[in-house]
Amino acid sequence: MKMLRTTLLVLGGGLAAFAPMTAPARGSKPAPPVIVTFTAPESIKRLERSRHKVDFFHLSNQFESQGNKAFCGPTSSVIVLNAVRMGNDAVAKPQDPSLVSAEDLEQLPPGFDPLFHRYTQNNFFDARVQEVKARAEVFGQPRGEAGKSDSGIQLRQLAGMLAAQGLDVKLRILDDSLKDAAVREELKQNLKTQGDYVIINYFRPVLGQQGGGHISPLAAYDAKSDSFLVMDVNATDQRWVWVKASALLASMRTPDVQEHRGYLLVTEGKPAQARDTP
């Protein structure tokens, strides 16, 4: 009689056990998939019955794909910034001159401004954000003469960048102090509340996806399937997906450069809220 083996795979410093593949018992139902793509018929059912999807409509209206492989953090940020501040004229929003060339401007009527006032992946890096982490540092430039290269954006750094844009940001690092039940409940409450948003930092291989660490907004939760809708900003290679809650939390409980990954709870900052109050 041959002994069954268990394969151990190291993921982000942790061990995940994978049982050998066996045929399901006769009459038993197959386990639900960990991931369901947004275009699948099952996805439509989940979104329709969801009671935690207020954020979905605001985020989808402002969604854009990341312009390069390093910008999942800035892209998630500008989607949320535009969702938070759309229609709020009390907050001055930037323009992005890089979107219209000098040659294009020469063809326009004198005095006509072709640019919208909105956040983009380029103008996100204003002077305040660059103090937290400069655009060049995201691509690997060392900070200062004696600094080391720190490419990409860690979750704590992204929290500082969003705070520099005037937003109120709560950082949640998924270490042992945060229990799954509390995390699940906090995420659910956010997704059914108007005006606040969730940005998650997770490790793709835990979900069976190619790649490494990634950042995207969270858009909805379906209680029946106990799954969250991840609005993946890499629309070139990936899809929006519903992810089983236990798997998504496990993908955030993975080590990054200095600490575990996790999520951000984002809403408008108090000064901006005060300016918008009659």
Summarize model confidence as the mean pLDDT: 88
Outline the biggest β-sheet.
7 strands, antiparallel
How many DSSP helices? 10
Q: Number of DSSP strands?
A: 9
State which percent range the strand residues make up.
Answer: 15-25%
Helix content: 25-40%
- Which runs of at least 5 residues are low in confidence (pLDDT < 50)? 1-25, 274-278
What is the 3D shape? globular
Computed CA radius of gyration, to the nearest angstrom: 21 Å
Strand order of the largest sheet: 3-8-7-6-5-9-4
Cα-to-Cα separation, first versus last residue: 79 Å
From the helix content, strand content and strand pairing, which structural class follows? alpha+beta
* Element order: H for helix, E for strand: EEEHHHHHHHEHEEEEHEH
Overview of the structural elements:
- The protein is α+β, with helices and mostly antiparallel strands and 278 residues long.
- Helices cover 30% and strands 19% of the residues.
- A 7-stranded antiparallel sheet has the order 3-8-7-6-5-9-4, with helices on both faces. The protein has a two-stranded antiparallel sheet with strand order 1-2.
- It is globular and about 65 Å long.
- The N terminus and C terminus are likely disordered.
